[in-house]
Amino acid sequence: METNSESIDLLLTRAEEFSKTNLELLKLKSIDKAADIGSTLFSRLLLILAICLFSLTFTIAISFWLGELLGRVFYGFFIVAGVYAIIGLILFIIHPGIKARVGNEIIIQMTS
């Protein structure tokens, strides 16, 4: 029959193994979450880059086309710049809502 000291030693050994296993599990979960967030961020940045390049090329083409229709090339660029100014103003006005939604999405992603 085991003595009390042997039982306590066994209990302490198992508790130590349990805590080491939990710590290792926490590390692995953290690595998994960081890899998931990093890969999502990288793929979305690539998508945003592609959209920006398309938008830039399309904007230049529209500017030249409008300028040709109006008789002066710079008129087309002024019109497109005005459209972008209006879009920028709208985004400036709704910025707090966008910021809150993005912040909430990051929190959800990190805690899930």
Task: Walk me through this protein's architecture.
This protein has one domain (4-111). The longest helix is centred in the first third of the chain and has 67 residues, at 4-70. It has helices at 4-70, 73-111. With 112 residues, it is an all-alpha fold. The chain has 2 helices and no strands.
Name its key features.
mainly alpha, rod-shaped
Number of domains: 1
Could you give the distance between the termini? 47 Å
pLDDT below 50 for ≥5 consecutive residues: which ranges?
none
Structural classification: mainly alpha
Number of helices: 2
Give the mean pLDDT.
Answer: 90
Largest sheet: none
The dominant shape is rod-shaped
Beta-strand content: under 5%
Helix content: over 70%
Order of helices and strands: HH
Rg over CA atoms, rounded to whole Å, is: 29 Å
Q: Based on DSSP secondary structure assignment, what is the total number of beta strands? A: 0
